[in-house]
Specification:
The complex is a heterodimer of chains A (about 450) and B (about 80). Chain A is built from 16 helices and eight strands. With about 450 residues, chain A is α+β, with helices and mostly antiparallel strands. Among the domains of chain A are: about 55 residues, no CATH class; about 120 residues, no CATH class. A four-stranded antiparallel sheet of chain A has the order 6-7-3-8. The longest helix of chain A has 30 residues. By secondary structure, chain B is of the alpha+beta class. Chain B has four helices and five strands; from the N terminus they run E-E-E-E-H-E-H-H-H. Classes of the chains: A alpha+beta (about 450), B alpha+beta (about 80).
Chain lengths: ~450, ~80
């Protein structure tokens, strides 16, 4: 088309020295400048033009701001930390009163259950051999590998993914690094995996009980860092709950209901009521009365959503929590439903995650990618810090109402000596609502048998 | 440390039935009787480094005379901290 006017678009620096840097006269370029000065001016102009072009050609998905948003902070009393430290010391010195005979008696019963669980495992002869030591991950891993069952149903990253550096969370999801991730082998050997988990729960619980017995002093009290704020989380706390019946005297337990959910809802200004995991399980599985496993999975998905997990990261998280293998696409559909129901939580994670986007550029491409590891670590540390404060406030409120009763304080519950006073839950609720304005923490008090 | 004793096939000892692969209590059998079972390939001995004895690991609850400590990593992960 020779008659058509030709438009030519040129990219890159159009001139070496901008007009405004030179005198608006007809004197030649570089006139009056030394060679070094002209070179410096030229470099500056080139850099400016490149920055302009980069700004005008920003890649899709580029975050508007990569500064981390300031998270809401709890309003704590000025002497909060010092009082908490003092209470921590008191709890550590006080210890938990244990009935030694009851502990030995229950331990013997649980040991027989452990032998029975071992027997069930040994029935799975295709995977678990006679020499397999169920107490050792290395031995169990070897047995699964020998039978070809040590495989997670997660697709491998393609060469393209590896070159571009995407899909790293799939590699993390494929890893089977210990008993905690053995559920990933459920596709091939579901019965063996279930049997091993039953054995492991009893084994780890008995290990805790034996150490309790070894650490029991002459006055029948056990002191440990587990009962203080610094260590009051993780599987040991769950196993300790198996042995509450061996405590001496009457005890009650103060539990904060769904602390993780209420905390993140507070951070995100989400006003919708917390999800009822049973109702979600009923809806997702299409049953009237969901099984405990289904409720457990539903709770894990809700927790994963509230922590900002999605895709294979959610699959990994929910599986670790529930020890169940479920299709990743199905989990993602469930997460999407939660995201629609709780848009502020979704927006909160979107805002926070933009601060962890990193520019990735190379020959022919330039885009932003979320550094998931850094993002998850930041969210985890922020949430744990705030959850510790929730637990600390609850323990301080109990100590104010009923002095010298707290014997153990965990991240979501406090164990106390004696019987609860009527106003304990009101005091805790007042303290929590003062520190976390407009939050909706619920407190449940339970008298232990 | 004595080896871990494991039953091969189903085995009845002193009114107790042991399934294939099940561990036999360390003090259950006198030495001569144990040798007889091993000779007749009814019981196999494993080095404790290959398969640890549950009875020895939880001697407080099993009533076993001998005891075997848990690994340091296991103590850190499962036992009560200081």
């Amino acid at each position: 088309m020779p008659d058509e006017q030709q438009f030519v678009t040129e990219y890159g620096p159009s001139h070496i020295i901008s007009d405004w840097q030179t005198e608006p006269s007809d004197r030649p370029v570089n006139a009056g400048y030394s060679a070094e000065a002209a070179e410096a001016l030229s470099r500056e102009a080139v850099a400016r033009d490149r920055a302009l072009l980069a700004a005008m050609n920003r890649a899709p998905g580029t975050p508007a701001s990569t500064r981390e948003p300031v998270l809401r902070e709890a309003t704590l009393p000025s002497d909060f930390q010092s009082r908490l430290d003092a209470l921590d010391d008191e709890i550590h010195n006080r210890g938990v009163a244990v009935d030694r005979d009851k502990l030995v008696s229950l331990g013997k019963k649980r040991f027989q259950e452990l032998l029975a669980a071992d027997r069930v495992c040994r029935e799975e002869q295709r995977v678990i051999h006679i020499a397999t030591d169920l107490t050792s991950w290395f031995s169990v891993k070897q047995s699964f590998a020998a039978s070809g069952a040590l495989k997670a149903p997660v697709p491998e990253r393609s060469d393209s993914d590896r070159v571009s550096g995407s899909g790293k969370n799939r590699d993390a999801a494929r890893a089977i690094a210990g008993f905690g991730s053995l559920w990933k082998c459920s596709q091939h050997e579901p019965r063996a995996v279930r049997a091993i988990y039953k054995f492991r729960d009893l084994f780890e619980s008995l290990a805790l009980a034996q150490s309790m017995l070894e650490r029991t002093e002459k006055d029948s009290r056990v002191a440990s860092g587990l009962f203080c704020f610094c260590a009051g989380r993780g599987p040991r706390v769950r196993y300790f709950a198996d042995w509450l019946s061996v405590l001496q005297g009457s005890h009650f337990k103060v539990t904060i209901d769904k602390p993780l959910w209420h905390l993140i809802a507070w951070l995100a200004n989400e006003s919708a009521p917390a999800p009822e995991t049973v109702d979600w399980a009923r809806y997702w599985f299409g049953v009237r009365a969901p099984l405990p496993e289904q409720i457990k999975l539903s709770r894990a998905v809700c927790d994963g959503f509230v922590l900002g997990h999605s895709g294979w990261a959610l699959w990994d998280f929910a599986g670790d929590r529930s020890r169940q293998l479920i299709d990743e696409g199905r989990l993602e559909a469930w997460r999407d439903e939660l995201a629609k129901r709780y848009p502020r939580i979704t927006a909160f994670h979107r805002n926070v995650s933009t601060a962890f986007c990193k520019s990735v550029s190379g020959a022919g491409y330039n885009y932003w990618r979320l550094d998931e590891t850094a993002y998850r670590a930041r969210v985890r540390s922020a949430v744990n810090k705030q959850l510790d404060r929730v637990a600390g406030l609850a323990a301080l409120a109990i100590e104010e109402t009923m002095p010298k009763t707290c014997v153990a304080s965990f991240q979501d519950s406090v164990l106390c000596d004696g019987k609860p006073k009527k106003n304990v839950s009101d005091t805790i609720a007042t303290k929590l609502n003062t520190a976390f304005p407009s939050a909706n923490f619920q407190v449940v008090i339970e008298q232990l048998p | 440390m004595k080896p871990t004793l494991v039953a091969i096939h189903q085995l009845k000892i002193a009114d107790r039935v042991f399934a294939h692969g099940e561990e036999i209590e360390p003090d259950l059998l006198p030495d001569e009787r144990l040798d007889w079972h091993i000779d007749h390939r009814q019981i196999v001995e494993y080095d404790p480094r290959v398969r640890r004895s549950l009875y020895r690991l939880f001697s407080v609850f099993s009533g076993c005379q001998e005891s075997e400590p848990l690994d340091e990593s296991e103590r850190d992960a499962y036992c009560l901290p200081e």
